[in-house]
Specification:
SDR_fam; 9 helices; alpha/beta; NAD(P)-bd_dom_sf; 261 residues; Rossmann fold
Length: 261
């Protein structure tokens, strides 16, 4: 059975959607959770729910702008002062925007890189010293199935490729310190961010072999395993949680068009 008893986990973008599902499951598995987000009202409410459900002190909300090194330093210092240790980081915060190369303004490129790639980089830099000092930890970067192939939304796709590369580099750098770093690559997930673009959601779902979007708990279950001691020999891994999308969406289209499936 997977357990996180005694662990302390920081989750970015944890106030709603996929991050909230991760926070809920982390708490249910026995850990204390720090919810980092810009959405203060939703984050405070979620922390209150988790404290009522699992005991006072289980969850704490702290404001976090993942683009800011100072914001990262504050939330890590807060977590250490409050709980005395930090065993896990889930770099979950992210944004998505459409745009081909010719349609994408440099400012949009910078926006997605700042949140998706820089945010994850700053997070690892912020938590690594504490994890090294205590003898190890686990970091889970949330990438995307589009980081496993090319994608027409260039800034989003490339930012998630950067997360994938960062995962590999960090896994190499910190393995000797007992810190594991892995990446989870979701396909289409039924979250508020995805719901904002129903046309895109439906198009991806149509070529997903599982035939449905993921629910946030589908992703959270895998994240929980990677945070647990059960994944102690797993680092530097890319784990698609995409209903088979990365197995060959184009091949599925061809098979359907030719009557094979």
């Amino acid at each position: 059975m997977v357990t996180l008893d005694g662990k302390v986990v920081l989750i970015t973008g944890g106030a709603r959607g996929q991050g909230a599902a991760e926070a809920e499951l982390v708490a249910a598995m026995g850990a204390r959770v720090v919810i980092g987000d810009l959405l203060e009202a939703e984050g405070v409410e979620l922390a209150g729910v988790l404290n009522a459900r699992h005991g006072t002190g289980t969850a704490h909300f702290a404001g976090l702008d993942v683009r800011s090194e100072e914001s990262w330093q504050r939330i890590v210092a807060d977590a250490l002062a409050r709980y005395g240790r930090l065993d896990g980081l889930v770099n979950n915060a992210g944004i998505a925007r459409p745009g081909t190369i010719l349609d994408t303004a440099p400012s949009l490129w910078d926006e997605l890189m700042d949140v998706n790639a820089r945010g994850s980089f700053l997070g690892i830099r912020a938590v690594a010293p504490a994890m090294i000092e205590q003898g190890g930890g686990a970091i889970v970067n949330i990438g995307s199935a589009v980081a496993l192939a090319g994608y027409h939304a260039v800034a989003y796709g490339v930012s998630k490729w950067a997360v994938r590369g960062l995962t590999k580099a960090a896994a190499l750098e910190f393995a000797a310190s007992g810190i594991r770093v892995n990446a989870v690559h979701p396909g289409v997930v039924d979250t508020p961010m995805v719901a904002a673009n129903p046309r895109q959601r439906d198009a991806v779902t149509a070529v997903t072999p599982a035939g449905r979007p993921a629910v946030p708990a589908d992703i959270a279950q895998v994240v929980i395993f990677l945070l647990s001691d059960g994944a102690s020999y797993l680092t530097g891994a890319d784990i698609p949680v995409d209903g088979g999308f990365s197995s060959g969406a184009a091949a599925l289209q061809i098979a359907r068009a030719t009557g094979v499936l």
